[in-house]
Description:
The protein has 307 residues and is mainly alpha-helical. The protein has one domain (11-306): Up-down Bundle (Rhopdopsin 7-helix transmembrane proteins), CATH 1.20.1070. It has helices at residues 21-51, 58-84, 94-127, 132-135, 138-164, 181-186, 193-224, 230-258, 268-289, 292-306; strands spanning 11-14, 90-93, 173-174. Strands 2-1-3 form a 3-stranded mixed β-sheet. The protein is globular and about 65 Å long. It starts with 10 loop residues before the first strand and ends with a helix. The relative contact order is 0.15. Its main location: membrane. The chain crosses the membrane at residues 23-47, 59-78, 98-120, 141-164, 205-225, 237-258, 270-289.
Amino acid sequence: METENNTVVTEFILVGLTQSQSIQLLVFVLVLIFYLIILPGNFLIILTIRSDPGLTAPLYFFLGNLAFLDASYSFIVAPRMLADFFSEKKVISYRGCITQLFFLHFLGAGEGFLLVVMAFDRYIAICRPLYYSTIMNPRACHVLLLAPWIGGFVHSIIQVAIILRLPFCGPNLLDNFLCDVPQVIKLACTDTFVVELLMVFNSGLLTLLCLLGLLVSYAVILCRVRGSSSEGKSKAMSTCTTHIIIIFLMFGPGIFIYSRPFRALPADKVVSFCHTVIFPLLNPVIYTLRNQEIKASVRKLFYQHLA
């Protein structure tokens, strides 16, 4: 990290989401509402799935882990963002920046891979129902759950290893409200064309391939259920529609951010805000609102403890 004049960047100054005080106040209230209402809802989903003996199917096992990943992901950016609203100078240390970047991609990629696992689970349940209990046994579920964590770690550690080799000697003004790959790389004191290309392949291409693979898999599932009974068809359609909504919420912003040259666009901060703060808290809630079994279990849990 040292240069010829021995200047070393030890901290980055975050520009923030906006310079408008009124918009900052609106965003602060919005994020606070999400944290006070929706975040506890994610933990309620986890508690409901773990406490209800009727929710032991692999779908709910993976959904509980998705809620945990989303809740963990929301702690990476939003708490610091809330604190920075009261600071005139938003400063993050170099190590803090790298740490935030690591967990952002570790948990983000882990969630993306988990959605792939959930798509596989739905494919087996709908297209191979006679073999479902054999294939998706408890041991297989735990092995499949391990894959997103390993995949997310490998993906993120590659990002961090590449960035740690870059020299940072100034400027240190980061045009965002968080530390992310596109903005951090642009501050390096060297030609970053090759590095940007590697990052696009590591993040952008991977995200795009996952999205296309998931859409194809759900298209196959929907084609297979067309001849099913009306009840089974309705339930499969509802589940697949929910999954597809989450897929677009998860992968759409990721493709916009990482699948193009790292040039600043007016929409970058808004997309990053939705991708890192809003959508992670909404994902499990969308699942819950469209799942009758979980809604019934939540009501039962409330009656047991409040009646």
